[in-house]
Amino acid sequence: MMQQKTLEIEGMTCAACARRIEQVLQNSPGVKEARVNFASKKAYVQYDPEVTDEEALRKAVESTGYSVRAPELTLIMGVEGMTCAACARRVETAIARVSGVTDATVNLATERAHIRYVPERFDMGELLRAVEGTGYRLFDVDEEDAGTDEATELKELTDARRRVLMAWGFTAPVAVWMLVGMVLGRGHGHGWPNPFLFNLAMVLLSIPVLFVAGAPTLRTAYRAVSHGSANMDVLIAMGTLVAFVTGIGTFFAPIENYAGVSAMIMAFHLTGRYIEARAKGRASEAIRKLVQLEAKTARILREGREVEVPVRALVVGDIMIVRPGEKIPTDGVVVEGESQVDESMATGESMPVTKQAGSEVIGATVNQQGLLKIRATKVGKDTFLSQVIKLVEECQGTRVPIQEFADRVTGVFVPAVLIVAALTFISWIVLPGVMGRVASVVHPFLPWVNAGLSPLTLAILATVAVLVIACPCALGLATPTAIMVGSGIGAENGILIRRGEAIQTMRDVDVIVFDKTGTLTKGKPGLTDVVPLGDTEADRLLSVAASVEQGSEHPLGRAIVEAAGARGLELAKMDGFEAITGRGVRGQLPDGEVLVGSRRLLAERGVDVSAAEAHLDKLESEGKTAVCVSLAGRLLGVLAIADTLKDDAEPAVSELKSMGFDVAMITGDNHRTAQAIASQVGISHVLAEVLPDQKVGEIQRLQAQGLRVAMVGDGINDAPALTQANVGIAIGTGTDVAIEAADITLVRGDLAAVVTAVKLSRATFAKIRQNLFWAFFYNTVAIPLAILGLLHPVIAELAMATSSISVVTNANLLKNARIKPRWMEAKV
């Protein structure tokens, strides 16, 4: 049986890195599929555990020059014996030296130690002994271990910000000096106040920018080259180092000093990376928000007493006490109480939902009014919220088909750029006249272009510009960031996208097939018509029928009773109830015998039903089940029961049709009933009398006609059809089997979510296309300009950084997309 493993990759700086790792993993023995997401810095690997293992996968990644981050956990422990800040510092130092500990903070005020550690290398015994050796003692405070993704991200952003500030602290004087020199110095001012001082200052000011602030970039570049690969950092490193070397070379040869330019390139590069990281953090905040929704503690009944415990300590069967304003700790069933619950975090629906005994509730939703007693039914990784987080993570790890071409490009992009850069240098040296013709023409219009420089200087400028302008990062970020934002928006609106490719496929769908029962309809019969005859009043007719049906367990009978209850009708006491199989029921009321059933039943008992014939024919032609009601041998009227349509079925179908989809309905009902239901919602394409095991065949038949099909269903019988369809959409009120088989799951049972899902898919794919277009367009235009010497290296680096930032920012603009159905927007 195949297994799936998610690896966190350290060291990736561009899409070329991701492509390199993916290729190595894909070619590893036992690996069926490998996907590397540059934006999330994760590798998703499906492999055969009998052929390979996690350690082999880790070594495969390390063979490319990158590393797999061991998952870190946070441990919170109490510290005994501290009396001053020196004590805290001593304990902190001792903890930090323990194997496997990556970070330690000791707070004197709270007497707590917060320890980040790698489980594989960590030994609790060693930790306790280390602290005891300093004269203090650690003790367990029973606080929950937690993942540290957010803390790690915050630390990385803080480090990046520090590097940016340092880089500009030294680059700003360089820029000012060069500007002053241009105004006061000779020619272009590269020697003010004298050449020696200027050249020395440029070199000295550039050193901390390149080799301190930019050290991570240089280290990554070295690691990539030493392992026979190249990435974006290699291009930046080569460009900056070549420019820096010219500064040293000015002391030995008559060449221009571009050491200051190298500092500016690195400063812009680090700034771009910092802004990009912040934008990516906003793109990936969906999962963080979901995790933060979880309740931390729960109050449960233990031996008749209320006890507060961590949520992780809950077990199935625990009775939880949830007061107004509190989060429901985990999924469960209400056993006592009634309240309104805010489920917007799960469904996107702002209106609270009434919960009473027997109602299912979702963990992390908010109880608004009354006290509830809830029996826990799911805990830990089995809860709804955990499954949502898992689905969002799965989606963010999938690949959209349109990305495949971009991936192939990024796989060869950096090596190709290195070749182009080398050819550019050679061309400017060998054919300076030919290469400089365009520069000579545009020199009056572009102040940074100077065709009068020496061929060697022009060659260096053009080569450095080519190295730093080429940006595979934008190509690598185009799709993942859009999917991150899109899947997050979906989760907030109760739309769970399991596979990213469904986003693209949904755009190409021709026909959307709805299952009828439980999808277009509510899935249970309800009273639709009350037709009194003669001088009988409607409420009297319904009251008599419901009084007899009190004794029935038949769904039609229950529908009549529920309708009477909804109207607040008083029911009479009934005697002598009898169910007549296939025909109806009989009962005795104080006013006489009551019959509720088919016209045949009443006719057999001597009741004249001729006055109801026209009404019966009309109701039955509409696909409804019509029954006659008589009292003491006199016909009172007709009731009609049907599986009623969902309130938003008609507007949802109408909007989908206006979006260009052909809409069909599939059902096991006979053609007459199916056509009646379909006509109410405006569906003309009806697949009727389809048995459960024939639904797949019907989907295949449509596909054989060249149609791309989306299937919307909710039951176990729909699961095979959902899988067969090009896009399977499961209504979340259905079964887990259907949800597992679907590409998209709708948490809410209403059909507005179908329209929202389609609009979200289209909006997300539109962002992907925009991102890919601008990424390709940018490189297509920028690289030739750099080759011709029309881009100053600093401008080239600024443009490169801007391209990546713009792609991620554009993906974040997806949050402003209008994905609500038109009729819902009109209500706002």
Describe the structure.
By secondary structure, this protein is of the alpha+beta class. It has 31 helices and 31 strands. The strands form seven sheets. Strands 19-31-30-29-20-27-28 form a seven-stranded mixed beta sheet, with helices on both faces. A six-stranded antiparallel beta sheet has the order 21-26-25-24-23-22. Strand 30, helix 28 (736-741) and strand 31 (744-746) form a beta-alpha-beta unit. Helix 17 (472-492) runs parallel beside helix 30 (793-812). The radius of gyration is 35 Å and the shape is elongated. The two termini are 50 Å apart. Residues 142-148 and 185-189 have low confidence and may be disordered.
Topology:
Layout: E1 3-10, H1 15-26, E2 31-37, E3 42-47, H2 54-62, E4 67-69, E5 73-80, H3 85-96, E6 101-107, E7 112-117, H4 124-132, E8 137-140, E9 146-147, H5 149-184, H6 195-213, H7 215-226, H8 232-249, H9 259-283, H10 285-292, E10 297-302, E11 305-310, E12 319-322, E13 332-336, E14 339-342, H11 344-347, E15 353-355, E16 360-361, E17 366-367, E18 372-376, H12 384-396, H13 403-430, H14 432-435, H15 437-442, H16 455-469, H17 472-492, E19 495-497, H18 501-507, E20 511-515, H19 516-520, E21 521-532, H20 538-549, H21 555-567, E22 575-580, E23 584-589, E24 592-597, H22 599-604, H23 613-621, E25 625-631, E26 634-645, H24 649-658, E27 662-666, H25 671-681, E28 685-687, H26 695-704, E29 709-713, H27 719-724, E30 727-731, H28 736-741, E31 744-746, H29 752-787, H30 793-812, H31 822-827
Task: Give a short synopsis of this structure.
The chain is of the alpha+beta class and 828 residues long. It is built from 31 helices and 31 strands.
